[in-house]
């Protein structure tokens, strides 16, 4: 059993590898491979991964670190894809260019997400082709590369038969916070959800079969934020505490509860004051409160800068320290539900467990009043043949209207990428709810074209 991590130089790689390793018996894993085009960055991550596997856990899992596609994918059963095309330098542009024009600056939402999507579609297709060529015939690609909605639509159009499952950990992070707020155990929680990626709603959250959404509404109303008090004390830091070091004053932290994320969790209260029926995905704040998010954003220091100055810096400083001294600080790398969830998904596919997960999949009538070919996010039972999506009734007009606007913006940007169409790209930017006018859409798009030279296809 070979598992390859594409984007092996990611700061999330050590935590994901640890999640895989702790499930060695269930996955029956013999070898983990790291594959990246950034050789030096991946080499450093590989040093830490080697320590995790062989020093920390004392396992006999083979580790291969490579920049060669054939070496990376030959006979692999699973490929975990976490590519960031353009790195943090381009993420910074995705966030800062829209803000200069008074639009939301966010890496997966609005103009930034559209730009990131255009950079990622063709590299993802190339990855699929490489895996198809070298991996086992019954391979699975588990893709959590952002922006997942646009990437999944691009894959649907260009590689409809690929064995790929597109996933996102944000709903899991929300459930983690909900469980902390209500002091309930996540393992006893089941939920219903519908939407697009980074654009959806929880319609039910059940703990041991009992509906807890009413209790959650009261909590959010009373606290005027979704975050528990213990999490709020750690908002200034981006680093996670190790579980064994967590205390009431310094809890183990969810990476989505740091720094500028405060306004996102605060927005859960503001949205539910107006629309209390469902619990929104936190990313809906960027679409429903775009004006307010621009007002409290700093165009000179965005989330990309926060992450570079904290999680990125701390991890690589920690690796440098280990290489010099042989001393390791586990708090420098993130390990948590993100990696656990991905590894558990692989277990469900391998062992045909029919465990329930939230996945991004082609609608095919699962939401009756959404297009058949829409890439929607819904619960599904996962077994050896992939997702068995759980269908639902028609969704309300408000949510359906928002989803159709976002869906069509995403479909247009995929068409613009494939066709090299400036007009379709402009339509995608104009249609997006984070953009106030056609004129502003054109200004942002033209700046994005300059910033993305060498990444985007030429638009005519």
Structural notes for this entry:
It is a single chain. With 460 residues, the chain is of the alpha/beta class. It has a domain at 2-88 and 107-170: Rossmann fold (3-Layer(aba) Sandwich). It contains 18 helices and 13 strands. A hairpin with a 2-residue loop joins strand 8 (199-207) and strand 9. The model is unreliable at 237-253 (pLDDT under 50).
Q: How would you summarize the topology of this molecule?
A:
Layout lengths: L1 E5 L6 H9 L2 H4 L3 E5 L3 H18 L5 E5 L2 H5 L4 E4 L5 H14 L9 H25 L5 E4 L4 H11 L5 E3 L3 H13 L6 E8 L2 E9 L2 E2 L1 H11 L5 H4 L28 H14 L4 E2 L4 H4 L1 H6 L7 H23 L11 H15 L3 E8 L12 E9 L2 E4 L7 H23 L2 H10 L6 H14 L9
Helix pairs in contact: 1-3, 1-15, 3-14, 5-6, 5-14, 5-18, 6-7, 6-16, 7-16, 9-11, 16-17, 17-18
Strand order of the largest sheet: 3-2-1-4-5-6
CATH architecture of one domain: 3-Layer(aba) Sandwich
Percent range of helical residues = 40-55%
CATH class of one domain: Alpha Beta
Annotation field: number of helices: 18
CATH third-level topology of one domain: Rossmann fold
Portion in beta strands: 5-15%
**On the 0-100 scale, what is the average pLDDT?**
93
Strand count, sense and barrel status of the largest sheet are: 6 strands, parallel
Show unreliable segments. 237-253
């Amino acid at each position: 059993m070979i598992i390859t991590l594409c984007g092996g130089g990611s700061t999330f790689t050590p935590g994901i590898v640890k999640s895989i390793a702790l499930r060695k018996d269930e996955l029956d894993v013999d070898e983990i491979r790291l594959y990246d085009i950034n050789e030096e960055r991946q080499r450093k991550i590989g040093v830490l991964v080697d320590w995790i596997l062989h020093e920390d856990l004392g396992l006999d899992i083979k580790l291969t670190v490579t920049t060669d596609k054939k070496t990376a994918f030959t006979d692999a059963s699973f490929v975990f894809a976490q590519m960031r095309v353009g790195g943090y330098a381009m993420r910074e542009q995705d966030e800062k260019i829209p803000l200069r024009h008074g639009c939301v600056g966010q890496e997966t939402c609005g103009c930034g997400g559209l730009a990131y999507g255009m950079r990622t579609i063709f590299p993802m297709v190339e990855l699929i082709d490489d895996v198809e060529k070298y991996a086992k015939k019954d391979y699975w690609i588990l893709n959590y590369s952002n922006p997942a909605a646009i990437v999944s639509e691009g894959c649907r159009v260009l590689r409809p038969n690929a064995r790929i499952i597109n996933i996102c950990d944000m709903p899991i992070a929300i459930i983690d916070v909900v469980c902390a707020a209500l002091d309930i155990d996540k393992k006893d929680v089941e939920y219903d959800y519908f939407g697009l990626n980074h654009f959806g709603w929880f319609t039910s959250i059940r703990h041991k079969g009992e509906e807890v959404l009413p209790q959650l509404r009261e909590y959010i109303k009373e606290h005027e934020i979704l975050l528990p008090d213990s999490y709020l004390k750690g908002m200034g830091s981006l680093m996670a505490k190790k579980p064994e070091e967590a205390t009431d004053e310094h809890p183990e932290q969810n990476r989505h509860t740091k720094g500028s994320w405060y306004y996102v969790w605060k927005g859960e209260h503001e949205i539910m004051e107006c629309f209390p029926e469902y619990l929104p995905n936190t990313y809906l704040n960027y679409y429903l409160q775009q004006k307010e998010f621009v007002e409290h954003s700093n165009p000179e220091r965005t989330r990309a800068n926060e992450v570079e100055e904290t999680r990125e810096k701390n991890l690589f400083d920690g690796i440098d320290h280990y290489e010099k001294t042989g001393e390791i600080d586990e708090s420098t790398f993130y390990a948590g539900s993100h990696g656990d969830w991905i590894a558990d998904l692989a277990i469900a596919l391998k062992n045909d467990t029919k465990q329930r997960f939230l996945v991004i999949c082609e609608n095919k009538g699962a939401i009756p009043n959404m297009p058949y070919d829409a890439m929607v996010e819904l619960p599904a039972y996962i077994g050896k043949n992939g997702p068995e999506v759980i269908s639902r009734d028609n969704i309300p007009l408000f949510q359906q209207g928002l989803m159709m606007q976002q869906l069509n913006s995403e479909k247009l940007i995929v068409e613009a990428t494939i066709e090299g169409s400036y007009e379709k790209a402009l339509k995608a930017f104009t249609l997006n709810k984070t953009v106030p006018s056609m004129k502003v859409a054109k200004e942002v798009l033209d700046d994005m074209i300059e910033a993305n030279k060498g990444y985007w296809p030429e638009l005519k």
